[in-house]
């Protein structure tokens, strides 16, 4: 008895969350400006400061969560678990200590659990945005947690 999967169809117009640590904000902003023509076709979400900077630099409407240390990473993770996010672009700084590191790890974990495409650096973001699936429908496989959710918890 192997793992059971279900199919989830990602639409042409993706819901993308964009997050960047302080030392990576400029990199993410530069990348977003460079690819603004492709990003304009999608729904954008971001944590606090990153979202405000993205709006200012690109002119896009961005749905903003709280700042990462104030719970924004957890809000993004919740949206992922609820199927409200299709892709994560998280330019994180592996060399700087983060006070909310457990939240960051939880966000990365939930993205993997729900098989959400995720870029943690510029090179991977380039691969994602240049994929034919970036702006077309895509069917992904997600573990079917029905049995897990229905188990008795005494």
UniProtKB/TrEMBL annotation:
A GO MF term: methylglyoxal synthase activity
Pfam families noted in UniProt: MGS
Positions of the MGS-like domain: 8-154
EC number(s) given by UniProt: 4.2.3.3
Keywords recorded for this protein, A-Z: Lyase
InterPro entries associated with the record: Methylgl_synth, Methylglyoxal_synth_AS, MGS-like_dom, MGS-like_dom_sf
GO cellular component, one term: cytosol
Gene3D superfamilies reported for this sequence: Methylglyoxal synthase-like domain
GO terms, biological process: methylglyoxal biosynthetic process
Reactions performed catalytically: dihydroxyacetone phosphate = methylglyoxal + phosphate
Keyword Iron: no
SUPFAM superfamilies: Methylglyoxal synthase-like (SSF52335)
Catalytic-site annotation from UniProt: 73
Keyword Lyase: yes
Residues annotated to bind substrate: 21, 25, 47-50, 67-68, 100
Function: Catalyzes the formation of methylglyoxal from dihydroxyacetone phosphate.
Protein family membership: Belongs to the methylglyoxal synthase family.
Name of the protein in question: Methylglyoxal synthase
Originating gene: mgsA
């Amino acid at each position: 008895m192997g793992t059971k999967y279900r199919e989830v169809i990602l639409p042409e117009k993706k819901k993308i969350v964009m997050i960047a640590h302080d030392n990576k904000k400029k990199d993410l902003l530069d990348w977003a400006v460079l690819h603004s023509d492709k990003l304009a076709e999608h729904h954008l979400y971001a944590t606090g400061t990153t979202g405000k900077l993205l709006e200012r630099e690109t002119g896009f409407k961005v749905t903003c969560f709280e700042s990462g240390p104030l719970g924004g990473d957890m809000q993004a993770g919740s949206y992922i678990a609820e199927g409200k996010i299709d892709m994560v672009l998280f330019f994180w700084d592996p060399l700087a200590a983060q006070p909310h590191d457990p939240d960051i790890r939880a966000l990365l974990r939930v993205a993997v659990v729900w098989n959400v495409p995720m870029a943690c650096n510029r090179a991977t973001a380039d691969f994602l945005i240049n994929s034919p699936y970036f702006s077309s429908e895509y069917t992904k496989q997600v573990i079917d947690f029905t049995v897990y959710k229905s188990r008795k918890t005494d």
